[in-house]
Amino acid sequence: MAVYEYSCACCGRFEERLAMGSAPGTRDCPTCGGDAKRVYSPPGLAFTPASVVASREREERSREAPEVVVRGGAPAPRASQPPHPALAHLPRP
Ligand SMILES: [Zn+2]
């Protein structure tokens, strides 16, 4: 079974579960009974987690307008962290 999406001019979109490859181009609207045309949409995007959708949108935006990186490289070591005791035995430059 696959989920197919249809759009009624009066009632909007609705989904139908049908055998794969058996979806007609038009279907009766379950609300008003009028003709509803099949709508083609990317599969699985309706069930994609919001974090994945946000990541994809960020990637799309970065193609035309990449985000500006102010500071790069590894983060600076924290000053409050004491040096490792083994480092005290290393020769100094
Ligand atoms: Zn309708």
From TrEMBL:
Signal peptide positions (record)? none
Q: Which domain of life is it from?
A: Bacteria
Annotated segments matching region Disordered: 51-93
Domain Putative regulatory protein FmdB zinc ribbon, by residue range, is 1-41
Which InterPro entries does the annotation name?
A: Regulatory_FmdB_Zinc_ribbon
* Bias-annotated ranges (Basic and acidic residues): 55-66
Q: Where are the transmembrane segments?
A: none
Q: Tell me the protein's name.
A: Putative regulatory protein FmdB zinc ribbon domain-containing protein
Native organism: Streptomyces spiralis
Name the lineage. Bacteria, Bacillati, Actinomycetota, Actinomycetes, Kitasatosporales
